[in-house]
Specification:
Helices cover 61% and strands 14% of the residues. It contains ten helices and five strands. Strands 2-1-5-4-3 form a five-stranded antiparallel beta sheet, sandwiched between helices. A hairpin with a 2-residue loop joins strand 4 (130-138) and strand 5 (141-150). The chain is α+β, with helices and mostly antiparallel strands.
């Protein structure tokens, strides 16, 4: 279901409170049901436009190197405004990301000296007059920014700023949680691989020890020597030995030659 339809509660009499509740429900649904980060961010820009009376909204996220990229926009015009900031390396969204604090610009004409390239580009290419950038952060960690664009100059009411920040915070928690889950899955997979490899190596040591009447320590030295002399992975040599694809005599002979 489209996020705008989810939060368009004014039509059924629920009013603004109902719209806000539906917005958070829509974001929560995205987090728990077939998690899709792009769907989450698309919903965020759409509910932000609807609830905060913005003419457009966009989101930039940082990659692992801290490079910002436009990942969601309510329109092509919003995407262009984000790109203008990134290309000129100046603007409210960059400052919100770098500082971790909201950056409100009621009138872009009044900050021409602060961001000359960005404001000049906006003036020539769009009719946007005010920008409000909200950091996407959690406990001091900023991962991007949600940006609200308005054609009419003027401040955003404090209640709307707080609501916008709350929406950004919910999305941020979802993104960071997904990253943490993926990192945990990677770590678990790496740990399982390490444990499996250790079992295979122990089995290969046993094969060599039995075949050559060696101690387990000597068997491991022979196994390691063979792997190094053939520029092969220790686990792979052990696997071939256990699966009878590599004769134990060949491994022991290579070790004896290096002794």
């Amino acid at each position: 279901m489209n996020a705008v339809n989810v939060v368009n509660a004014d039509e059924d009499g629920a009013g603004r409170e109902g719209s806000v509740a539906r917005a958070f429900v829509a974001l929560a649904d995205t987090l728990v049901d077939e998690y899709d980060m792009l769907d989450l961010l698309d919903r965020l820009v759409n509910v932000s436009v609807h609830l905060l009376a913005a003419d457009a909204a966009g989101i930039v996220l940082a990659d692992p190197r801290g490079q910002l990229t436009v990942v969601a926009a309510s329109s092509d015009a919003a995407k262009l405004l984000e790109v203008l900031q990134l290309q000129n390396e100046q603007g409210p969204c960059l400052e919100a990301y770098r500082s971790g604090e909201p950056v409100s610009v009621p009138d872009l004409h009044e900050v021409a000296a602060r961001w000359p390239n960005f404001t000049a580009a906006v003036a020539s290419l769009s009719d946007i007059s005010s920008v409000h950038a909200l950091p996407m952060r959690l406990r001091g960690q900023a991962i991007g920014a949600l940006n609200l664009f308005h054609r009419t100059p003027g401040p955003l009411p404090p209640a709307d700023l707080a609501l916008g920040q709350a929406l950004a915070d919910v999305a941020t928690i979802g993104i960071l949680q997904e990253r943490a889950i993926r990192r945990a899955e990677v770590v678990a997979e790496q740990l399982q691989t390490a444990l499996t490899s250790r079992v295979i190596i122990e089995q290969a040591k046993g094969v060599l020890a039995h075949y050559g009447d060696l101690s387990m320590d000597v068997a491991f030295d022979q196994l390691r020597t063979y792997a190094r002399s053939h520029n092969d992975r220790l686990t792979e040599v052990a696997r071939r030995l256990v699966e009878h694809a590599l004769p134990p005599a060949e491994v022991i002979a290579a070790g004896d030659r290096r002794a």
